[in-house]
Specification:
The chain is α/β, with parallel strands linked by helices. The longest helix has 16 residues. The N and C termini lie far apart (49 Å). The structure holds adenosine monophosphate.
């Protein structure tokens, strides 16, 4: 295990990254909310492989949780997280307190227009704006870097990519494939909320996405037909509670496409017991 720096203040994180760049190192940033699993670690490994100095941020950002969501219950395991980061070769963990990140409640709000109008943006008002503010702060603190995000949160990846582009930030956003359990369930810190039966049922989310993608692969070009097939698969699992969406959209704009063409993304969000789970999968219709 290598030595790892523990950075708790904005000033310390900024100085750490500036010193690394002054030595000619490239900086990699892996933003997380902690409770690290192999999905997070895949981002971390990629950053360690591609950059000189990797900083993992661990911050449960209150701004991106709505009223009645799981901010207080969100899984935390700081010591284990730091140990894992050290084992994987991260140079530092940046773990600010809420007071350090938000000494005063931000008046800034970010709106991503059409990109945040649907899906998570529609179901969790304020969520993507809250992600935008914290990621903008992280980019401002860490400075020029490559920043690694998971495709698991497809709309978040779209939003932070546009954040960096629209503000001409010196940050290259790198999207990384979703890491899954053997039965297809995407790794997520929120899987910890699942009981044994719910955990077994949760594989239906990936099954739903695969069924939709297979239909497109077989030549289906009607959005409604694909979405109906997805809904049917989800309905086979009685433990799945309210379904927020099960749909197919354009992969880049996240807007509906009719007929289906080009790069597409199938996305699903559903409640299972105490957990609200999201997942997505790509599909291509050659144009
Ligand atoms: P979170 O801690 O849930 O905010 O996630 C931190 C980062 O890890 C985000 O960029 C996520 O998209 C990414 N991530 C979460 N789960 C996975 C997964 N199963 N595979 C790959 N990346 C993931």
């Amino acid at each position: 295990m290598s030595d790892i720096g523990l950075l708790h203040t904005v000033g310390a994180a900024r100085a750490f990254c500036e010193a690394a760049r002054a030595r000619g190192e490239t900086v990699g940033l892996v933003p997380t909310m902690g409770a690290l699993h192999d999905g997070h670690l895949s981002l971390l490994r990629r950053s360690v492989a591609e950059t000189g100095v990797t900083v993992v941020s661990i911050f449960v950002n209150p701004l991106q949780f709505g009223a009645g969501e799981d901010l207080d219950a969100y899984p935390r395991g700081f010591d284990d997280d730091v140990r894992r980061c050290a084992v994987e070769g991260a140079a530092a963990v940046f773990a600010p307190s809420v007071a350090e990140m938000y000494p005063q409640p931000p008046v800034l709000s970010l709106d991503f227009g059409e990109l945040s109008a649907r899906l998570e943006g529609a179901r969790r008002p304020g969520h993507l704006g809250g992600v935008g503010v914290v990621v903008a702060k992280l980019f401002a603190i860490i400075g020029a870097c490559r920043a690694y995000f998971g495709e698991k949160d497809w709309q978040q990846l779209a939003v932070v990519s546009r954040l960096a582009a629209d503000l001409s930030l010196p940050v290259e956003v790198v999207g990384c494939p979703t890491v899954r359990e053997p039965d297809g369930l995407a790794l997520s810190s929120r899987n910890a909320y699942l009981g044994a039966a719910e955990r077994a049922a949760a594989a239906v989310l990936h099954g739903t996405l695969r069924a939709g993608a297979a239909l497109i692969e077989a030549g289906e070009r009607r959005t409604a037909a694909v979405e109906a097939a997805m809904a049917e698969v989800l309905a086979t699992e009685p433990l799945v509670g309210p379904v927020d969406y099960a749909c197919v959209v354009d992969a880049a704009t996240l807007a509906p496409r009719e007929p289906l063409a080009g790069e597409l993304r199938l996305l699903v969000a559903a409640h299972l017991g105490a957990a609200r789970l999201i997942d997505n999968l790509g599909a291509t219709v050659p144009t």
